[in-house]
Write a structure and sequence with these properties.
This protein is of the alpha/beta class. It has two domains: 107 residues, Nucleotidyltransferase, domain 5 (2-Layer Sandwich), CATH 3.30.420; 144 residues, ATPase, nucleotide binding domain (Nucleotidyltransferase, domain 5, 2-Layer Sandwich), CATH 3.30.420. The chain contains eight helices and ten strands. Strands 3-2-1-4-5 form a five-stranded mixed β-sheet. It has a five-stranded mixed β-sheet with strand order 8-7-6-9-10, sandwiched between helices. A hairpin with a 3-residue loop joins strand 1 and strand 2. Helix 3 packs parallel to helix 5, helix 4 crosses helix 6 and helix 6 crosses helix 7. The relative contact order is 0.20.
Length: 255
């Protein structure tokens, strides 16, 4: 059975083609102004990579902000459910999923069977999200891939009071002008995001194993800060960026 999960996010669109729980192909692209078109292009590319066509697809499930804009779907499902499904399949026994995307962040509690018990979500602004990190990296003259290296190099973390993008940017400029090292500022930014996630998690409780998904899961500095502040290992599974699409494809297999 060939199923497809399409995660139409506010920043990026991810498509996963799955058979028997195995990912055959996965494609990611910027969502842009036409989510349906982007999803269609990503789907065609993913199918091409595994030598399939649309007639081979048995079921499509969509998730993310643009999930209801995608045609030919069997149904749409919330990203909470999809990330939980994908994470539990990838990390059996997972009890908490932290999903940090381009424009929002979520903490999801799972029961022993992988069902969602509760969740907390920040979707009011870009505070502590991928967009926040992109702006801060630009201000520091870094690529996001440099954050883990800078985090390791820091002797201490600069205090970042805000995770609001506008105010934090001013703080970063002020800290650098006062002589703070770039590495200490990076660690401070990662700690600020981790603290915000911990605050979200306190509303519902955080229980290990903790799985990190979403675009920010590839930021090693944020992962290290989360581990320090939460006091537990944070697992970044393979395909962590595609976890919503993967979970949607798994759900499609049972729909």
């Amino acid at each position: 059975m060939i199923t497809v999960g399409i995660d139409s996010g506010s920043t990026a669109t991810k498509v996963a083609v799955v058979s028997g729980g195995k990912v055959l192909a996965a494609v990611k692209a910027g969502t842009g102004t036409d989510p349906a078109l982007t999803a269609s292009l990503c789907l065609d590319e993913a199918l091409k990579r595994c030598g399939l066509s649309r007639k081979d697809v048995d079921s499509i499930v969509t998730t993310g902000y643009g999930r209801d804009l995608i045609p030919d779907r069997k149904k749409s499902v919330t990203e909470i459910t999809c990330h939980a499904r994908g994470a539990f399949q990838t990390v059996p026994g997972a009890r908490t999923v932290v999903d940090i995307g381009g424009q929002d962040s979520k903490v999801i509690r799972l029961d022993a069977t992988g069902l969602v018990l509760d969740f907390a979500m920040n979707d009011k602004c870009a505070a502590g999200t991928g967009r926040f990190l992109e702006v801060m990296a630009g201000r520091l003259g870094l690529d996001l891939g440099d954050f883990e290296r800078e985090w390791k190099a820091a002797r201490e973390a600069s205090k970042i009071s805000n995770t609001c993008t506008v105010f934090a940017e001013s703080e970063v400029v002020s800290l650098i002008s006062q002589g703070a090292s770039r590495s200490s500022v990076v660690r401070g930014l990662c700690d600020a995001i981790a603290s915000r996630i911990a605050s979200l998690g306190r509303r519902i409780g955080i229980e290990p194993p903790v799985v990190l998904t979403g675009g920010v899961s590839l930021n090693g500095g944020v992962r290290r800060s989360l581990e320090r502040i939460l006091g537990t290992e944070v697992v970044v599974p393979p395909m962590s960026v595609f976890m919503g699409a993967y979970g949607a494809a798994l759900i499609a297999a049972n729909s």
